[in-house]
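Possible race condition, two jobs.
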Amino acid sequence: MLSCARMRQVWRRERAGAQAGASQLSAGGAGKHQPRGAVRLRRRVTALVAPEGPARPRLRRFGASVVFFGLVGGNIVVIVWIWVANHNLPFLSTADAITRIGALTGLLAAYLALVQVLLLARLRRSSG
């Protein structure tokens, strides 16, 4: 990977070469060919100059993970809300509290196991 200063230096060299080539064309040097190195340099500079290339997949991946964790967190909140709405919050005894908290833990564990299976299915599809 080249540093920014090196990329600018290569870009300036390419731009100066293009301006010199344009002046040769206007001076009557239309039949001359460019050296092979100039073509390779132009391709390399074009590939290095585009700054939005590597940043976009990173941004897309970050956006996808924000959406994913938002959905998972939202579903956990909905599961707990449904559990509370079924009048499971008032505990009558210690045994009742342990049983109801165990039921909530089971609901959340089943949901997270489903999320894990979905993530594993995605992993197999992308590697195959």
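Job #2 (started ~2 s after job #1):
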Amino acid sequence: MSEIKPDPGTGHDIELVFRVSGVLNQANSDLRRLASCAERLKELAENILTEEFGRSPVFISAALGLVSGRPPRKSARRASPGSGPTKKDLVLQLLKQDGGATMTDLQTATGWRRNTVSAQLTYLSKLGHNIQRDSLNGDLRYQLQA
């Protein structure tokens, strides 16, 4: 793109405005295409996680949140009333699903380290939740019992 130096009275300032407008319109169009591509990639990731790995919608949304570049929330408390489920709620939902959840599932969904997940499971047990722990092929699996 050649540099245009506006000179009052010559009409170059109008030409500059049209060029800038064209660049902005192209950038806006490119952003719309990128947003469309990102939405399609999210749909494909959801399908793969659901069909190939049999993951629950709760796990999928948590995993996609981590992949999107948003940092995981630091606290299990809600930021404000109505801001959505807490990580404790997320852990409970994963434990309630058929087959429960592995330690890796819980770590990925919450963004927590192994010791934090273990502490949360202990805390939930102390609150009265019956959490069954099984080992399947060397992988620890936790499930909430009714």
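The longest strand covers residues 130-136.
Logs attached separately.
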